[in-house]
Amino acid sequence: MEKSDDTKFLLLKRWLIVNTLGLFALWIFWQTGQVPHFIANDSAYLSKIVLGFFIFIMFVCTVRIWRCSHELNVVHDYQRLLSLGDTAGCTSILSGNSRLAGHIQSIKGVSTEGHKILVDEFRQSMENKIAGSGNDLTRLIQLGVITIFIGFAYALIGFDGTVLTSQKQLFDLIRTVPPGIRIAIFPGIVALCGAWWYDYIFAILQDGTEHLISEIVKAGVHHEEKD
């Protein structure tokens, strides 16, 4: 079997493994009653806001992983056809709308120095495209911190400056704090767990993009040599 066949869906396989483990962990927490407890105590909808943002950035990152996997498959097919001397097959791939086709078209006929500049620009362009997904990890953590502070504001809402004149008033006030503490802590836990999960998914995208850049640059060199 060709190497390209062995690695054809490697990124998607890694994505599937990470998400399977994440969903399994979520299922365990559900079975132990932790997830329903989180939902029942999310009266301010803070955890749901964090969860919604997590699902959104996971979707965006997943789409980018799929695209990266597809582009890698195109490069591998081109390298295989080039090594076999299949000019018609190579021409067919280069007539498409892939990253590979765009890069080879841009370096055609340029000088050695110009080639280096275009390669650097291509690398920077590809890295910029995934920078947003990397920043989403920071945004998720920041959202978790913000919701924690909002939750504590709910928790301390009972402290309205009223002078306590009896022991009963003190005990009543203390009893109102724990639900508010849960409102503060739960979205933070959701954000941290989501950030940990998302970090692994983004690492797949990052590794795949770096590999794609390397393979496209290498294919461009081989194309120039063949010409």
Strand content bin = under 5%
Low-confidence stretches: none
Proportion of helical residues: over 70%
User: What is the H-and-E element order?
Assistant: HHHHHHHH
How would you characterize the largest beta sheet?
Answer: none
Q: What Rg, in angstroms, do the CA atoms define?
A: 26 Å
Please give the domain count.
Answer: 1
Based on Cα principal axes, name the global outline: elongated
Spatial separation of the terminal alpha carbons: 28 Å
Instruction: Please provide the count of β strands.
Output: 0
SS field, number of helical segments? 8
Structural class: mainly alpha
Average residue pLDDT: 82
Characterize the structure shown.
- The chain has 227 residues and is mostly helical.
- It has one domain.
- The chain has eight helices and no strands.
- Helix 2 runs antiparallel to helix 4, helix 4 runs antiparallel to helix 5 and helix 4 packs antiparallel against helix 7 (112-155).
- The longest helix has 60 residues, at 167-226.
- The chain starts with a helix and ends with a helix.
- The mean pLDDT is 82.
